[in-house]
């Protein structure tokens, strides 16, 4: 009996170490083995061993310069959680309607730390073998969907400013980005040229939850040649986001209003 208890404690200890490593990578952070060791207090050999197992399981993936981040399996598990599944199920009929009306690729974007995660994607384009509509991630500032999320997330902006202190390229881009985010908040809609690929434009709008905070963004992406003036479809995108927000409010029995009104520094 004691041996069984010891084995059970060992299993819990291994699981606890895995959770500690995953916690380090939460919020979209990328970290090295050295950084993970510093945050967890685990020895390098243990961290290397645990990371190898997590990479094989697709819970963690290795990126450039020996850094690690959460992998696609974690994102699939998160997006399958009841609250997020409810949002996707509620939003999907509206997303399909928007796709039919615009013939563009429609995204439901959600924030994870400094990244935008595409929780749903409606398109006629056949996905490539390695693509996954529920796990694609990009920095918030790098996509129209993400910029709308960033415009209403003051803590994400503060984090970006901290990162800019270490990056001349990012620091130089902040003034223009600040102006764009202010425009998004004034107009309730964001238009982003060369979104993901040259010659591709996106139009995005915020989805607010029952407490008035932003919970997602809706975006439609299309070639510039198809819709030369993106403002012509802006009302449709805005209506889609408002319909989803209203349905969320009805389910909770409360009104929906944007909660972030502060001017970002």
How would you explain this protein's 3D organization?
- The protein has 265 residues and is an alpha+beta fold.
- It has two domains: 2-70, Winged helix-like DNA-binding domain superfamily/Winged helix DNA-binding domain (Arc Repressor Mutant, subunit A), CATH 1.10.10.10; 76-252, Beta-Lactamase.
- It is built from nine helices and nine strands.
- The chain has helices at 2-25, 33-40, 44-57, 72-79, 82-102, 144-151, 154-164, 168-187, 234-252, and strands at residues 31-32, 60-63, 67-70, 105-112, 115-122, 137-139, 190-192, 200-208, 214-223.
- The strands form two sheets. A six-stranded antiparallel β-sheet has the order 6-5-4-9-8-7, sandwiched between helices. Strands 1-3-2 form a three-stranded antiparallel β-sheet.
- The chain is globular.
